């Protein structure tokens, strides 16, 4: 059918047009893959920082809610968060706390089993679980850092960065007011680097510089 000088009918793509379209799609796909890969690498490399931030927020929230100090402790294995009990202890206090928590869990199981069988318990035994929960004894979180990462911290009063792989133990305490010491942390490997400063009033990230290949 013709209308004037214009041909009207079914029109398709020519081979040249298809080749051009496929070339453009291939270029766009090639540009997208490195971007997605870069985002994935950054997410993996940033995981220790994200985990530390979550621990800091939880420790600060609990300290303010319970009006008791909480801590995030650093050693060669990574980070651990718990109630702050002993200002003179080291990493072994977390191992001892874990044993105490296991013992309390066994006692709770015995109490629940006795109650299920209708055995009456004295007031002290009935309140063991409530007292334990009220004191925050059961809160303990841990993040094991990848041994391939270099991991350093610097706290208030430190003149140099502390290499945590050297067996150092440091604690970051959150007071009932929500305040904490200023903290700087560096985490890096061959393809990424993060340096983060945490705010002493909020426990959140104050400044950051980073790169990921």
Give your account of this protein's structure:
- This protein has 213 residues and is of the alpha+beta class.
- It has one domain: 3-Layer(bab) Sandwich (minor pseudopilin epsh fold), CATH 3.55.40.10.
- It is built from four helices and eleven strands.
- Strand 10 (192-198) and strand 11 (205-212) form a beta hairpin.
- The model has no long low-confidence stretch (mean pLDDT 79).
Structural class: alpha+beta
Coarse shape: extended
Poorly predicted segments: none
Gyration radius, to the nearest Å?
A: 28 Å
Sheet-strand content, in percent, reads: 25-35%
N-end to C-end Cα span: 60 Å
Mean pLDDT: 79
Strand order of the largest sheet: 7-6-9-10-11
Largest sheet: 5 strands, antiparallel
Total count of strands: 11
What proportion of the residues is helical, as a percent range? 40-55%
- CATH homologous superfamily identity: minor pseudopilin epsh domain
Structural domain tally: 1
Q: How would you spell out the order of helices and strands? A: EEHEEHHHEEEEEEE
Under the CATH scheme, which class? Alpha Beta
CATH architecture: 3-Layer(bab) Sandwich
CATH domain topology: minor pseudopilin epsh fold
List keywords for this structure.
single chain, 213 residues, alpha+beta, minor pseudopilin epsh fold, five-stranded antiparallel sheet, four-stranded antiparallel sheet, 4 helices
Secondary-structure blueprint:
Elements: E1 2-3, E2 6-7, H1 15-66, E3 70-75, E4 78-83, H2 92-116, H3 123-126, H4 128-134, E5 140-144, E6 150-155, E7 162-163, E8 170-174, E9 183-188, E10 192-198, E11 205-212
